[in-house]
Structures are given as C-alpha cells and as structure tokens.
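Bench notes, afternoon.
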Amino acid sequence: MENIVRLDQARKKRIHWDTVIIVAVFHLAAVAAFFTFSWANLAALLVVWWISGSLGIGLGYHRLLTHRGFKTPRWLERTLATFGTLALQSGPIAWVTTHRLHHAFTDTDKDPHSPRNGVIWSHIGWIFKGTAQRQPDAVVKKYAPDLLRDPYLGFLDRHYYLTSVVAAGILFLIGGWTMVVWGIFLRTVMLWHFTWLVNSATHLWGTTRFETTDDSRNNGFIAAITFGEGWHNNHHAYPRSARHGLTAREFDINWVQIRILERLGLAKDIYAMDLDAKEAKVYKKAA
C-alpha cells in the first residue's frame, strides 16, 4: 500500500516534457505565420479551425461523446471524433474522460483544471504536470466505458496525431509550407488557447444566470471564439443540454449546426434547454 501511495504521489508531480517540447515548438512555428500572410493561408486556417474546433471539439468530443446531448449514426459519430483529433488535444477517450472528471468534481481538488489552483494552472499548466489527460486505466474505464466499446475510437485515441500529419500533407500540396504554418501550427495554437479559455476564463469572468455549486460563468467573448462553448454557466447548470446559448441573444453556432443535422435526418434524441419557451424546460426532440 505504501508503494502505491508513493507511486501516485510521483505521478502527480511528474512533468510531461514531451508535451512541454511539442507545445513550445508549435508556438514558435506559429510565429512564422506573421511573415507569411496570404488570403489563401487565412482561408485554410479558418476552414480547418471550423472543422477541428466546431465540428470536432464542440460537436464531436464535447456535446456528443462527452454529454450525449444528441445521437447520430455511428459513421457520423466517428467522423466528428476524427475531426476532433485535428485539434491535437488528445484522443477522444482521453478528452472525454478528463471532461467528465471536470464535471464530476468541478472546482474542487479533483478537478483536472480548476482556476482555484491558479489561473495559469487552469489555462495551460495542467497539461504539463500530473495526470493531465493521461488518466490511469481504472479511471478511464470508470468514466468512459461507452467509448471503450468502440474499437475505432480506441484507434483514434492511440494515434490521434495522424490526422494532423495527413492534413499537413494536403495543405502542403495545396499551398506549400506557409499554408501548413497557418492551417496546422497557428490554427492549433489558436484553438488550444481558445479551448483553454473555457477552462480558465469562464470560471473567473462573466455573468451567472444559474446558482451552481461551481464558479462557472457565461462569457460572450469566449462563446464567440469557441462556436458557443463560452456559455459555460448555462452548460454547468444543464450539462447534457446540446444547446448552450439558452436564449436567442446567446448565439451558439454549434447548436445551429446540430439543428441543421437534425433537419438532414442525421441527429435525433436531442436534449436541450430553451429559455425562450413560455416555460423554461428541458425538452426532447426525436428526428
């Protein structure tokens, strides 16, 4: 037992130097974008940002895989998860495990990235030290058993970096190395920080509509740069809701896209909170 305790303490103090080096290299490479602007490069960044950040992280990793706020055909679920790997925020199983832990222990000592442990820690420090998104097998089995049953998601989790390699090759063929700088390096760094702002800023600054047991806030600016993920107090009040912007004034691009999928017959059993209804309530829609 004493050895197990020591091993656990060592794991919590461990610095992930591979992550430190990779993050540093990406930030340095992103600087080259300021000397290689072109409209084509900007277009590549925006397209890949939308695919990876909105379709991949927002819809795929977060609202579908983590919270099961709606259902899609298996092929589409896997496609959205594949898009999520382009964000280079780890594979779908690791990402979902971490986020489910965040909701289970929000703003406590067991929260993977609470600002109560420091703003820098909640924004970026947590990925460099301790368990980060490398949770023990027992934790993964407890918090993401549904994802472990899909062998394709398991493959993505182990090899999530491959999609970025493929994307880099395609961008190089289209626009050369400068397009790779914009579409891979700068876009990845931007998306990292936008996502991390949801972890840090939306637990520090913004408005509170619902009385929750945590520090979550609604932040319109963060929502604007994360396709709607910044309506964080709403989200913590109703985690399963596929809609985060709960009124017409709280624009939520990811919610709009889910409704489009519904009309195309590609999304069903959508759980959402709607404050514009005469009575605010959670409702279920089936395509």
